[in-house]
Write a structure and sequence with these properties.
The chain has about 260 residues and is an alpha/beta fold. It is about 45% helix and about 15% strand.
């Protein structure tokens, strides 16, 4: 048994959407620390390029809005102009929308569904040949979809399209995995809980209060997210296909226990 390089990403190339901030940046920093070359994409060119400058020469910015199929295809083209193969794709770009049931707008539905559920599929489709190019039984390519515990259990907010998009992404992960495994492209997902990210304002601004309702007693730290992504992206996670890794400090368990009572 060789475990010396179990979590190494040396000589691996990765693309992380929404990689300039929040959970995407946590994952990017983790991949870089394990030796990967990481391309980060973001709708904001300024944020994307600033993050790449901060993170060093192994991090390259390729800004793009992937909320449309055209944007996904354009990002895939830009990546393919720089690299002949892609080893790891992290579909992290996402958005949330909250409004009361009786007022929830179609724009809040479509905006969230397009970025959170539609773009992971069409970006993977656009990058399919580039991922397949370097994939093998011994060294599979990896797609990691960033879902949410809100796709597994309800939260207290009226974020209808967000809940639906993340639940859909968890099942899409299974369906994509069933098809792409034959090409040695292994698809999995992560369902984060409370992390101090751009979208999770409560965890970002009121971490101590949020921690009180988390069974392990704290919000997620950067290394918690990085570790989960490194596991799935590396050889350590080669036997995990189609599943969703919940990284939430026990929140989902706590919600289930509350319902049971």
């Amino acid at each position: 048994m060789n475990t010396t390089d179990l979590f190494s990403l040396t000589n691996r190339s990765a693309l992380v959407t929404g990689g300039a901030k929040g959970i995407g940046r946590m994952i990017t920093e983790g991949f870089l620390a394990q030796g990967a070359k990481v391309y980060i994409s973001s709708r904001s060119a300024q944020d994307c390029e600033a993050a790449a400058d901060e993170l060093g020469s192994s991090c390259i910015a390729i800004p793009m809005d992937v909320s449309t199929v055209e944007g996904c295809q354009a990002l895939a083209k830009l990546y393919a102009e720089r690299e002949s193969q892609l080893d790891i794709l992290v579909n992290n770009a996402g958005v949330a929308w909250g409004a009361p049931f009786e007022e929830f707008p179609e724009s809040g539905w479509d905006t969230v569904m397009d970025l959170n559920l539609k773009s992971p599929f069409f970006l993977a489709q656009a990058l399919y040949k580039t991922m397949k190019a370097g994939a093998s039984a011994s060294t599979p390519a990896k797609i990691i979809n960033i879902a949410s515990i809100d796709g597994i259990a309800n939260n207290a907010w009226e974020t209808y399209s967000y809940h639906a998009s993340k639940a859909g992404l968890i099942h899409l992960t299974k369906r994509m995995a069933a098809r792409l495994v034959e090409d040695h492209i292994y698809v999995s997902a992560i369902a984060p809980g409370a992390f101090a990210s751009r979208m999770n304002k409560a965890a970002r601004d009121h971490g101590e209060e949020v921690a009180k309702i988390i069974p392990c007693g704290r919000i997620g730290e950067d290394e918690d997210m990085a570790a989960a992504a490194i596991y799935l992206a590396s050889r350590a996670g080669n036997y995990v296909i189609g599943d969703t890794l919940v990284v939430d400090g026990g929140v989902t368990l706590g919600r289930a226990m509350s319902i049971a009572k």
